[in-house]
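Re: the 393-residue chain
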Amino acid sequence: MIRILMVFVALLIAVLVGSLIFDDKGYVFIDFAGYVVEMNVFSMAIMTILVIVGLLLFSWLIKKLIMIISGSKNWLGNWGSRKKKRAFTNGLIALAEQNFLEARKQLASIEQEDFDGLNLLAAAEAELQLQNPAGAQEYWRLATSYPKSAFAARLCLVRDHLQNQHPVKALDILDELDDKQKRQRSVLTLRAQALVQAGKWQELKDRLPSWKKALGEHYEHYMQLASKGNFAEIASKEGANQLKENWHSLPKSTRRDPALQAAYVKQLIDQGMHIDAEAALGEYHKNKPHPMLLPLYKELKLSQPTTSLKQLEQWLKADDMNVELLSTLGAVAYNAKDFSLAEKALSKAIKLGNRQQDILLLAKIKESQQDNQQALALYKQSLAQPNELTKAE
């Protein structure tokens, strides 16, 4: 607008100056279809200036009108955007408050909006909490189309397949991930779980050494499962003797793995080869008790477990207040029908730890000795520890 005024003033000044300089005002005659216009040159100049200024002013008004209309659209767009963001925020808050119906309502209203897939992941969680797994799966599948949420959505689908015992589908999704994603700890853990469910013991066993650092404390658990499954396949297809040959054919460095040792000993016990199992425990379990190997002593069914008793008593000399060692000694002695030693070890274990499994085993001993009153008292005592798992037979 300022520029228009400046142009108008400049032209007007030019006309006035021109009229002062030139005495001859000139003459303009226009005849247009019988319409005649007569004026001098300066009048024509002023009229021309007014027309030009009018056109400029009209152009300015049009631009202003366009800006106003465009601004109203932006305002409406911003209002719509704020409404969507408010629904997203309210949905997340409702989800955190465990108001899942409200979360479903708010998040469903922005299902088609672009929140990088976060709204879909949140909506899936709401559906999952509302016992609608099919709805959750659909949201996860939709979320895979957003680059920032695709990885998380695929992991959710994998967990869902594993929960529903569909390991092959889970493995198919894991195979679609890129190399960087496949190396992540969460992915390796899920793949290990899927291989366990699928019974692919040899593949799991072959992969675990390269996953050891990533799996951390879970490595031994999966190695034991893989080895146990692998050894069970060998024993069922080729027999127990072939199992032993297969074990001894492994490199010594491999046989030093406690998880593998535990799986091998467990398979020997399951095959009824208790003497071989005791010998293996004596060979691989010399220095100090290992949490993966020690529980296997309780499963030995031997009339004369000399090696096991000697080993346990040796450890107890160094740590006579160890409840787990006392409990194990009591179980081994019980299986060997040495009730006197079993009662002595279990009584001390109960005094120190008061665990249900030890109380129940001592009750069995009292019952076999026809001491029904003491056995009943022990059974009642065991009820005070309802959360204890009974491992003794």
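Residues 58 and 233 are 91 Å apart (CA to CA).
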